[in-house]
Amino acid sequence: MAEPTVDATDTTSGGGAAHDAPAASPHRWLILAVIGLAQLMVILDATIVNIALPSAQKDLGFSGDNRQWIVTAYALAFGSLLLIGGRIGDLFGRKATFVIGLSGFGLASALGGAAGDFGALVTARALQGVFGALVAPTCLALLNVTFTDARERAKAFGVYGAITGTGAAIGLLLGGVLTEYMSWRWCLYVNLAIAVPALIGTAVFIKGNQRAEQRGKLDLPGSFLVSVALFCIVYGFSNAETHSWSARSTWGLLAAGVLLLAAFAGWQTRAVNPVLPLRILLDRDRGASFIALLITGAGLFGVSLFLTYYLQQNLGYSPVLTGLAFLPMNGGIMITAIGAGSVLMPRVGPRAIVPAGMALAALGLVLLTTLDTNSSYATGIMPPLFVIGLGIGMVFAPAMSLGTAGVAPQDAGAASASINVMQQVGGSLGIALLSTIAASAAENYLDGRQPTADAVAQAGIESYATAYWWAAGFFAVGLVITALLYRRRAPA
Prior knowledge:
By secondary structure, the protein is mainly alpha-helical. Helix content is 77%, strand content 0%. It has 2 domains: 25-218 and 273-485, Growth Hormone, Chain: A, CATH 1.20.1250; 221-272. Helix 3 packs parallel to helix 5.
């Protein structure tokens, strides 16, 4: 049964008649490959540079205090501009926005790879974030309007969800290989090898410059409010990781972000061409999908961060072995993301799949809490990672598909950008909150003990276990929320 991009009966999404949906492209599976390449490039940069940081710091001679800005500059630019990037694609054309984003990201990566000092590297990372904010929402918007058949759409979003879920772990592996055998600079240059084929594929297979029929103008007040609000929120969470939650620079920024978001929401009800039409958020399935991706982003980044520390600091793994260690999670994500999207979603609907995925991810995290300083990879680490991957894959594909399903063509970019915002904010929240909780657990363990090597190692184990318990709690909350919000039916 065909699934039009716009549902004639969907009044919450602002959709028009079903016949407004574009005809299926004969090159749609090749377009999916192009979109997948672009999405992989953006996701990789969330983690690939992390592995290269020690080498870059030694080469360029910047301090440990400044090191976080290599990561933060990208996150701030990317997170704060996502909604604008999605709206630009709606108003001025998705193909043009996609090409500009890919080209800019590739050039910024080349500048970063050639950076001769700290300032040049930070500037390049910020530019990557700016152009990434054009690419990421446009990927989903193009996917949303390219696949109009229900079963094909489910398969396409399954593949896309698998790429999104495995990209961070692939970044760890690729970053380790490039840093160890070539140079940290290739962790940036590698984006050119992805951007160029994606640009060629875009020119050959993506026809026309799809955009909303009623274009209007970009909502400048709304764009300013939401960009500053998201900047404050992402920066506030990043600041909590390195300072404390009680620091003025943390809670002040978070409070300002919340107030600005409230002002943004108020303005969107009056704006002629809103950046984020609030009708996008009113559908139950869509709202549940946004919450699911927020929680999964927090849990996934938390797992990657603390397990990386454990593997390298406690078990002595090299960067390459650390990346390889995450392959079972990647395999689990690929299996269920594609399976849940193409097989289960059309039959049983999201209410059965997504909560089950949350439960599996929580179970895997609980299993990780049993690790100690002598745990075996084969019995203690690999099985929980595989279970976590199975769970995350069951969340990603349905949530991404339903987060954009039934949205009017003129709102596709805004809906896609909202999905990326949820993942970005979720990741920032997870890293900041779990880092603080883990640090407190380590301090509590060492309180009253001699700081011997064994005690310090055990304190690290206690901190990781505490973080895993909390991350499992995130997924447990997600299980309840998605079970209550998602409709029983399979998507029509």
